[in-house]
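User: Could you walk me through two proteins back to back? I'd like the raw sequence and the structure tokens for each, with a short line separating them so I can tell where one ends and the next begins.

Assistant: Of course. Protein one, sequence then structure:
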Amino acid sequence: MRKDTPSQKAKKIIGEIVYITLATVSKDGVPWNTPLWSAHDKDYNFYFGSPKNTQHAKNIRANGKGFVVIYDSRIPEGEGEGVYITATVKELTRVGEVKEAIKVMYKSKAKDVSTDKFLGKSILRAYKVIPKKVWINDAERRDELYIDFRISVKLK
């Protein structure tokens, strides 16, 4: 049986887990962590919608930095795998950008979703997470303990 490469494992987790956990930091250096539903495009950029007054939205506008974890916790202890991503995160403010986000997030129903839902006076905004560096975890068992480490992977 062929064993998946670390990159294949990362892509599989991304393909199966729809919730990401996004860590951001305020301009004052206060960390904030938020679980979010997201969708990704073929280049592994992630898109999500969120109210513009949330703490993570404020942090994104303040500095555009984020760290994403996508963890597959459905499997037994010691076998869990996750994808870890340093990223640039941005609020989408142009109609074309929001249209692209809608296509990714809503797929076949995209034609029914107006960009007005994420622009202007709407409380919601669309966001894009652009990966910079990606890892997957692996582990070894030593002295009855699991020792976790990271392996750098390429998604594209």
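----
Protein two, same layout:
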Amino acid sequence: MMESDRWWAKGLLFENCSCQLLCRAHVSFKQRCDGDVCVGHWAAHIVEGRFGGVSIDDLNVAVIYEAPPLMYAGDWKQRLYIDERADTAQRAALESILTGRAGGPWATLGQFVVTKLESRFTAVTFKDAGHEKRMTIPGVFDTTVTAIRSRDGADHAVISNLYNVIHGLVHVLARGTTRCRDEAFDFTTDKTHALYSEFSWDRESTGV
């Protein structure tokens, strides 16, 4: 493998979709989601990362999607929103990672995406308030996920040791509220399935 092909990224990933708590497709794509369609997002704040010689530190991205209730069947529709602070090389790097073209965990999800909409480069703001994570794209997207308290009330409820290619080992259970007004996606969720984790991605993680 050439050095220019190597990449890695670490940070925070959080999601919200139209399913009730807990989305069955998060456990397995072979389980049916609630309702006739699943709409939602994955939002990521990249703390640090490299794509070849390109730094992708401190950048934000959002993946908006629509999928049939049986996500394993494929036929997903998806659009990427990439932080406008990214320069041309960083934009190309993030797009390659999140579409799966660069291999790694997103290549696994990419095989389900049939309609790949044009990426958008715009202001993407991320705020971390501990138990609450928020990402906003002016006029298009606003999401907040809030952790569910644990039994003792001193920590957050979590699930662990669950096979999931893009999330970290420990997933903090949450409820999410999202409003999306992209011309291809028009949906609102209110206190539905959400969670977050600390992720670690790289090209070799799926053997690609």
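DSSP finds three helices and 13 strands in the chain.

Let me know if you want the two compared in more detail.
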